[in-house]
Amino acid sequence: MAARVKLPGSWPARLQSWVGGAWRPSTSASVQTLPVHCSALNKTLCEYEVAGTEDVEEAVRVATAAQREWARWAPAERGRVLRRAADILTERNDELSALEAFDTSRPLQETLYVDIVSARDALEYYGGLAATIGGEMIQQPNQSWAYTIREPLGVTCGIGAWNYPMQSAGWKAAPALACGNAILFKPAEDTPLTALALGEVLREAGLPDGLYNVMLGAGETGQLLTRHPGISKVSFTGSVPTGKAICRDAADSLKKVQMELGGKSPLIIFEDTDLDEAVSATMLANWYSNGEVCSNGTRVFVQASIKDRFLDELVRRTGKIKLGDPLDMETQMSALINEKHFAKVMSYIEKGQAEGARLVMGGERVSVEGDCAASACFMTPAIFDNCTDDMSIVREEIFGPVASILTFETEEEVVRRANDTDFGLSAGVFTNDIRRAHRVIREVKAGTTWINNYNLAPAEIPWIGHKSSGIGGSNGTLGIEDWTQIKSVYVEMDKVDCPYE
Ligand code: NDP
After folding, report:
1. Which residue positions are annotated as catalytic (predicted)?
2. For 417-452, what is each residue's pLDDT tens digit?
3. What are φ and ψ of residue 333, in 5° steps?
């Protein structure tokens, strides 16, 4: 293992937060540490120091000074730094993808093509947009006029989930920096590595010190950020309960909040669709990244007339999925992130059966030979049939490889049932009827949707959750709106119209 994954040579043996362009030893009286652990290999690579109150204070101070200067830079110059960082990420893709696979226990065959690439794309996209950030001109009576200015928010913070750590850091840092802000990013406690690597990459690209900082730690460190009066925005990716708690914490200092939360998304498959395509999408929407994807289409609604054929094919192809060592390029699924999460996902296998669903395949704890033999977090992908809308496995986010198959007869029925949830992150529809495809997408209450595909997330398309799945969003020009504030300026070209003598 050690030979296959190692920390970059410039890194300290015990990792620290990244503040002001350098490693920052924690100044807390009793330094707490946490391990960097891979659940698939059951191996700890190193440990890191948790950032406490003093560390956050120092980071806010450093970021405040740096941001004042950065906001004065020509936007095109800011963009150039981001685009250089994108190029460096491309050069370091192999090495960073291995770190990401280790940290998340997600297959290298994914991280090589998605994770670093996704952060790279965000840096490239917002690097290109930086010089276009501007306001509007609004004509007023008597030749007067008004204009708007898009200003940075100042010092902001980002808090990430553990499933896509580099993507999360990149999706937040790229628009934040392009718009002239500084950011303090707290990765999930399980997956700190690539957010730190991004710090080095941005520094090498010419980003001034203090603009991108990584605060290491668990929820308590996150709370130091979300409660800090010197931070003007929190961009959060994680679960709905944590998102609500953060909104409450952010309220005291009236921070702008951006929430990218969980989901229980519908994937709707009509009988006129190409069955192979629909099965491919269902597998991507349930097994990719070990099923640990916020937008996954875990409520699979299949029109009754094709349900049996669909299920046979899904079972046949799922049976060929190769579970194993995340660093082996043949591996298609690996271990879940940690034992606590594994136990939670397995509890839904029991609940599903207890509530009357039929477990068609999977849902078993398995062991994998070789380097992964000591891991207790491997499970086979699970397919439930005979599901009903009221079951726990259909209503609650599981965040693991558990698909629920539901049947429907009519378009009106499936839209109503698809919308019967508090979540509203994503939805997909498969049909060859072009009118129906657009009609259904217009009716589903979700922010990020697909017709005849699933889970694509290019940097230029807004990524957004509706209802309980989010506030604001990432990517596209929406990112510019979310990381700036508007100032309006009225310009009087005539006399002041005053009723007083
Ligand atoms: P959590 O909500 O448990 O944690 C998310 C982050 O918040 C972690 O960094 C966590 O730290 C931190 N945190 C926990 N408590 C607090 C607090 N009180 N104040 C500030 N920060 C806190 O989510 P998970 O990490 O378990 O991620 C899974 C969830 O994320 C799923 O619901 C998934 O759907 C959602 N998600 C949404 C995405 C989207 O784009 N909409 C994308 C990816 C995931 P720590 O790690 O120490 O717990």
Report:
1. 260
2. 999 999 999 999 999 999 999 999 999 999 999 999
3. -140, 150
